[in-house]
Amino acid sequence: MLESIGIDNETLIMLGITAVKIVAVFAVVITGVAYYSLAERRFSAFMQDRLGPNRCGPKGLLQPLADGAKFLFKEDIIPNHVDKTLFLLAPILTIVPAFITFAVVPFGTSVEILGQTVQLQIAEVNVGVLYILGIVSLGVYGIVIAGYSSNNKYTLLGGLRGSAQMISYELSMGLSIIGLLMVYESLSLSNMVTMQSGYISWLPFIPKWGCVVQPLGFLIFLVAAFAETNRVPFDLPEAEAEIVAGYHLEYSSMKFSMFFMAEYSNMITSAALMTTLFFGGWLLPWGNGYVTALPAVARALVQIGVFTGKVLLFSFLFIWVRWTLPRFRYDQLMDLGWKVMLPLALLNIVGTGAYYMIKMMLLR
């Protein structure tokens, strides 16, 4: 029956494998979101010399389940003064881009399953960088619509702040990657990881990672990632001391939790993207040759483990910065975006272009 409509067994197997990858990655991300929130509460408690949540299960490990059940069964209140259609749509517009962004992030090379070579990536897109930047920027629509549809001055201010912040830092984030594209000459995330497998020619013990060949681009991207995810010191759209809770002030129950699920999912994706672009992805520094020599399944497991370890380090950085630095004033935020980061990103592009022009002239 399937062959009559042009679907053979090989295509069916690949569709099944892709479906399994989608379910597996989604399960990992949603579980990571749940325990990321617990990790942040425990780390912040440690930094403030207190205990944090430790009652639900051993060491508080069941706390995310308790939180999920609480949000699920809490009363869902929709105020009379809101635009109901947009009010219900906003959390969806926020959480969907947060989850589908991870589709093009590679977490390994490939492994053979049922006679098929399976990429350790949901979708290999040759313009993966453009896909990431395009999808990430869609999340701000949910913030703006939530602020507008709530018909509340505080929420409107939060939505406007979110849109202004996104414009300020999305531009710098995109420009910070241009220098990296000039170095690796590819928009494919898998190819960019592969290009980082070598070593610096004049320092053969230093991996040719993006953070080494583009240190200024990495710093700009790192700061822009904090602003993109609305994290301290750039959490102006929901600054409690100024606008109560910002764009999600009128939300409750699961709709309220969806905004935070999107925030934590975006942080995981940002950590994965920094790992992929600037820290060699799944490559093990000074030991990648040993990993390549392993059997296919063992190699895949090691690569996934290396990638996960790097993502966890960046995920911890988000927590560390939140509980260390104070929030910027709004004018400071705008000044940093337009007067510091944007000129530096342009300077980085010009400097990279000048370096390669001089290098080409010397090689003639």
Describe it.
The model has no long low-confidence stretch (mean pLDDT 83). With 364 residues, this protein is mainly alpha-helical. The strands form two sheets. It has a two-stranded antiparallel sheet with strand order 1-2. Strands 3-4 form a two-stranded antiparallel ribbon. The termini are far apart. Strand 1 and strand 2 form a beta hairpin. Helix 1 (9-47) crosses helix 2, helix 6 runs parallel beside helix 14 and helix 9 (215-228) packs antiparallel against helix 11 (253-278). The chain has helices spanning 9-47, 63-73, 84-100, 128-136, 139-149, 153-184, 189-195, 210-213, 215-228, 240-243, 253-278, 288-292, 296-322, 330-363; strands spanning 110-113, 116-119, 199-200, 203-207. 66% of the residues lie in helices and 4% in strands. The chain contains 14 helices and four strands. The protein has one domain.
Number of helices: 14
Strand content: under 5%
Mean pLDDT: 83
Gross morphology = globular
Cα-based radius of gyration, to the nearest Å: 22 Å
String of helices and strands:
HHHEEHHHHEEHHHHHHH
Q: Which sheet architecture does the biggest sheet show?
A: 2 strands, antiparallel
